[in-house]
Write a structure and sequence with these properties.
By secondary structure, the protein is an alpha+beta fold. Strands 1, 2, 3, 4, 5, 6, 7, 8 and 9 form a nine-stranded mixed β-sheet that branches. Strands 10-14-13-12-11 form a five-stranded mixed β-sheet. The longest helix has 18 residues. It has two domains: 110 residues, no CATH class; 97 residues, no CATH class. Helix 2 packs across helix 3.
């Protein structure tokens, strides 16, 4: 009988120890997209998740390297579970810094968090670009119909230019690599990925029936 009691106690302790590590369960279920960022150990992932909790993110589901075209590569974007509604996707995120550290922030191991950091809701939408589904950053109120028209015009070459300079600059842009799109008050702005990870291309324009009139095209670098 003693051996049975000991076996039951051991089983209960095992169950309790499993339940006592919700952070470990959270880390085990993470979806990672670290790209050019170095691999993270299980302990480092726990530190990153713990920092995100301290900023107010209740449960972490994803950790991704920040897009190098729009941010320094020492940042990690830590996100909640995604909410999908048709072609629209939303998610709450916080940014965790690796060395160098955020000034005046909370530091845990090799990672830190700006003391002002709070969960921020980001939005994406899915588009078909040259036959392939692609997720593109956008505003929550993006007009999907107008955005579809803009991407369709770019793919089909239904483009005109308001200036020769815009035409010259746009010639170097790869329209198959959109990172973000916005459209407000008849204006369309799209940012594109480049081969230089520190730079991005962008166009500003307007829709005219089924054509896109590009008014400005340029490149920016961080």
């Amino acid at each position: 009988m003693d051996w049975l009691i000991r076996l039951l106690l051991a089983f209960q302790l095992t169950v309790l120890s499993t339940l006592a590590d919700p952070l470990g369960d959270e880390v085990a279920g993470l979806k990672l997209n670290l790209r050019q960022f170095r691999p993270l150990s299980s302990n480092e992932l726990r530190l990153v998740v713990d920092l995100a909790h301290s900023a107010g993110l209740k449960r972490v589901a994803t950790i991704a390297a920040a897009e190098s075209q729009l941010a320094q590569s020492q940042h990690l974007v830590v996100g909640s579970e995604e909410v999908v509604s048709g072609r629209r996707i939303s998610q709450y995120t916080v940014w965790v810094c690796a060395e160098p550290f955020a000034p005046g922030g909370d530091r845990v191991g090799k990672f830190s968090l700006d003391s002002r950091e709070r969960p921020y809701q980001i939005h994406h939408a899915t588009f078909t670009i040259r036959g392939k589904p692609m997720r593109v950053s956008c505003d929550s109120d993006l007009d999907l119909v107008a955005a579809d028209l803009a991407f369709s015009a770019l793919e089909a070459g239904r483009i005109t230019y308001s200036t020769d300079q815009a035409k010259t600059n746009a010639a170097a842009i790869d329209f198959a690599t959109p990172l973000s799109v916005t459209n407000k008050e008849g204006k369309v702005s799209i940012i594109f990925k480049t081969s230089d990870r520190w730079c991005w291309d962008f166009i500003d324009g307007r829709l005219k029936k089924n054509q896109l009139v590009i008014e400005q095209a340029s490149r920016g670098c961080s």
